[in-house]
Specification:
471 residues; alpha+beta; Pdz3 Domain; 3 domains; four-stranded antiparallel β-sheet; 12 strands; globular
Length: 471
């Protein structure tokens, strides 16, 4: 019998308490209630080894600063010593070029941003927010857009989607029917180790003493990693050393995300060929195509209701033979075709009780057609047992890589947020304070003003974005 949430919670607390007690009794690591700080100095020699690659690390950190804080970072790195006219020109040009990256990404992804029902009307501002402030600006504007949507829907008595929510592997994300798998804990551990490891490497590159490094445990689960620099050194250090150190963590997550993508997308492309090579004919024999399981009367998203283009055009048990002339043999084929230029009309070739029917449909504002597909299983064919083990293994690997990709992106953009305790919080102080100092602020007052401004702004956005979780 499946355990309810309360039972799972009780078991977790009991086991975590035992683990934490054992850590406290038999090790010298710090513990606090169910939290343990596992410290070690063993990786520090490795930090020193990689810190010797100074040119690469400098470029790596500078690229990360620009991705994290856009034209403001470019101005810090290149514009500070230029005459005002050239500095202004550099700021404008870098803003436009970085904004262009968002347009290029949107084009590559089939207008998934510009065609979005929420982002679409504000897409130019989304691109400019990235151009001006990189992922920090992108995240801030995304929080603002979702807060705007939530408030508007509350005013008309509709509950929107939360813009922020806890992401716990094995637990469904509140307000979103998605449950991160339990193995996402492993992904998180890898992400956090890479993140903090790059902090350690850049710290040593700039001469900071690293006292220790390690992992933060909640009971037996890793919820964080850390690098412990000498805080006195950090306080005395100049911004030119602190900024690369701070940027290194989230930039490493973006790099790992890219590496994961370079594995996942080729793997998806060659997977059918590999399967055919290992199990000739099985893929074609196990399925007889894709049919329409049901037709929705309407589709909904975050409290808004949208038309179902399939209603009146599709019928249950219609077999989807082809879409835009591309043969559909399985649900994966269908998904790929529908996600390509998802807001563009598609022509469906259906087999309806032996009769061929051609239907052209324009997707709704969500890029959806309003039907539920289902694989047609060939019940007369029994694949070899090894095929099932192969399929499960491949699915787990691909799922693991997907979550590694997705969680790397989340960790990176969250850490670029210009608010303490995130890396972006300390970065924003060093990047924005000089602008206030040109207006007559003293350095300490300027840094406090920047810190206070972003703290109030982001906490307010978090509060509004979290309202649908509770109200």
């Amino acid at each position: 019998m499946a355990l309810d949430f309360l039972s799972i919670l009780v078991i977790f607390v009991v086991v975590s308490g035992i683990v934490t007690f054992l850590i406290k009794k038999f090790t010298k690591n710090d513990t606090w209630f169910l939290i343990s700080l596992i410290k070690t100095k063993k990786p520090i020699p490795w930090f020193d080894k990689f810190a010797k690659h100074k040119k690469f690390l400098d470029v790596f950190a500078n690229v990360g600063m620009i991705l994290g804080f856009g034209a403001v970072a470019v101005d810090y790195l290149l514009g500070r010593k230029l005459p005002i006219v050239k500095r202004t020109a550099l700021f404008v040009v870098s803003t436009l070029l970085l904004s262009g990256l968002i347009y290029a990404f949107d084009f590559f992804m089939g207008n998934s941003l510009s065609g979005s029902v929420i982002v679409g009307p504000f897409f130019t501002f989304v691109a400019l927010s990235f151009g001006l402030l990189g992922f920090a600006g992108f995240s801030l504007f995304a929080l603002f857009l979702q807060a705007y949507d939530i408030i508007l829907k509350y005013l008309i008595g509709v509950k929107g989607c939360p813009g922020v929510a806890p992401l716990i592997p094995g637990v469904e994300i509140p307000g979103v029917p998605i449950t991160p798998p339990l193995h996402a804990w492993l992904s998180l551990l890898i992400i956090l180790v890479v993140h903090e490891g790059m902090h350690g490497i850049l710290g040593r590159r700039h001469g900071f003493k690293i006292k220790s490094t390690g992992v933060l445990l909640l009971g037996f689960l890793p919820i964080g990693a850390f690098v412990e620099p000498d805080e006195k050194e950090m306080q005395k250090a100049k911004a030119d050393k602190i900024l690369p150190f701070l940027a290194a963590g989230p930039t490493s997550n973006l790099a790992l995300m890219l590496l994961t993508a370079l594995v996942v997308f080729p793997a998806l492309a060659v997977f059918p060929a590999v399967t055919d090579s290992l199990f000739p004919g099985v893929q074609d024999s196990i399925l007889n195509g894709v049919k329409v399981n049901s037709v929705l009367e309407q589709t909904s998203f975050c409290g808004s209701v949208y038309d179902s283009p399939s209603l009146g055009n599709f019928q249950p048990d219609d077999v989807i033979v082809a879409v835009n002339g591309i043969a559909i043999n399985n649900v994966s084929d269908l998904f790929k075709v529908l996600q390509t230029n998802k807001f563009v009309a598609k022509t469906f070739l259906l087999d309806r009780k032996g009769e061929r029917v051609e239907v052209k449909l324009q997707p709704n504002e969500l890029g959806q057609f309003g039907f539920v597909p289902e694989s047609i299983i060939n019940e007369d064919y029994s694949p070899p047992e090894s095929f099932f083990f192969y399929g499960i293994t491949v699915s787990l690997v691909l799922e693991f890589l997907y979550w590694l990709f997705f969680l790397n992106f989340l960790v990176a953009i969250i850490n670029f947020l210009p608010m303490h305790p995130f890396d972006g919080g300390r970065m924003s102080v060093k990047l924005f304070a000089p602008y206030l100092m040109t207006l007559g602020f003293k350095e300490e007052a300027a840094e406090k003003a920047v810190q206070k401004f972003f703290l109030i702004l982001i906490l307010a956005l978090f509060f509004i974005n979290a309202l649908p979780l509770f109200i």
